[in-house]
Amino acid sequence: MNYRHHFHAGNAGDVLKHLVLATIIERLEAKPAPITVIDSHAGAGLYELDPEGGEWQEGIGRLLDHEPATWPPVCAAYATALAGDALLYPGSPLVALRLLREQDRVIACETVAPVSDALKDALARDPRAAVHRRDGWSALRAFLPVKTGRSIVLIDPPFEAADDFEQLAAHLIEAAKRASTAILLGWYPVKGRRAADRLHETLRVSGVSRILAVELLTQPDHDPGRFAGSGLIVIRPPWRLDEDLARDLPTLVDLMGYRATGSARVEWLAGEVVED
Ligand SMILES: C[S@@+](CC[C@H](N)C(=O)[O-])C[C@H]1O[C@@H](n2cnc3c(N)ncnc32)[C@H](O)[C@@H]1O
To answer: Is the CB of 112 under 6 A from ligand 1?
Structure first.
């Protein structure tokens, strides 16, 4: 296992993932019912960005060149989660904890020992957070469905293994069926269209309804050898998240300086039919 999210922290993929996670948490907080965020591949929780350079400069760095007040409205909760030292970037469990309330909690799984130790430190032993050094895939079975309140599940594997796309599809589908009201998020890289389109097709015919695919691309996606950006599958998105993202992501692409090469995409893979 060579993956270290440290090198990728704050890149454009993190921007998409964390802004959607933050927005969903904010929407669910309209009701007092407790929220559980399950983060199956949680990472270290807090990342010191290198002022000399790194992927963050092509992601959050470009956004921070502009005052948060000028960011499009769908970034509001994300901006709240980022408040503080710009060179200390919060990972997904910390983005969640910074927005969650007293009655909410985070279950974070991370297999790599030093990373899960760093995660415990980053979460500062917050009583709302539980860090598990365990396999995130099997954790989905262990922790879903949650017993009370609403749940948000983030599946964010490192995409080092050859079958990560297949694993992502299979676990999203299984978790959606196991937890019939959970909101599920699955992140994937876009390098050419082949793997992403295959993932979309698998989900389209899965029998799970209300599946949205959201992509933020900084480069054209027709070249299979080139990393173009990333996508997020959102199963059972809150009401109007699709419209808000479709309205604001193109503005975000412009604001980040990717108008010439990048694009945004918001597409329903399976209908907005409410499951019963
Ligand atoms: C993309 S990073 C996570 C980033 C984090 N979700 C965030 O947004 O800040 C993927 C993480 O998964 C961890 N990992 C790899 N295999 C795992 C597994 N089977 N279960 C749990 N964590 C795993 C890696 O060590 C790495 O820290």
So the answer is: yes
Query: Would you say the CB of residue 111 lies under 6 angstroms from ligand 1?
Result: yes
Name the active-site residue from 156, 221, 242, 244: 156
Per-residue confidence at 148, pLDDT binned at 50, 70, 90?
very high
**To the nearest whole percent, how much of the chain has pLDDT over 90?**
93
Q: What is the count of structural domains for the chain?
A: 1
Output the domain CATH number for residue 223: 3.40.50.150
DSSP per residue over the chain, as a string?
A: ----GGGTTTSHHHHHHHHHHHHHHHHHTTS-S-EEEEESS---SEEE--TT--GGGGTHHHHHTS-GGGS-GGGHHHHHHH-S-TTEEE-HHHHHHHH--TT-EEEEE--SHHHHHHHHHHTTT-TTEEEE-S-HHHHHHHH-S-SSSEEEEEE---S-STTHHHHHHHHHHHHHHHSTT-EEEEEEEEESSHHHHHHHHHHHTSS---EEEEEEESS-S--TTSEEEEEEEEESPPTTHHHHHHHHHHHHHHHTT-TTT-EEEEEEEE--PPP-
Give the residue numbers spanning the domain of 168.
5-270
Tell whether 275 is covered by a domain.
Answer: no
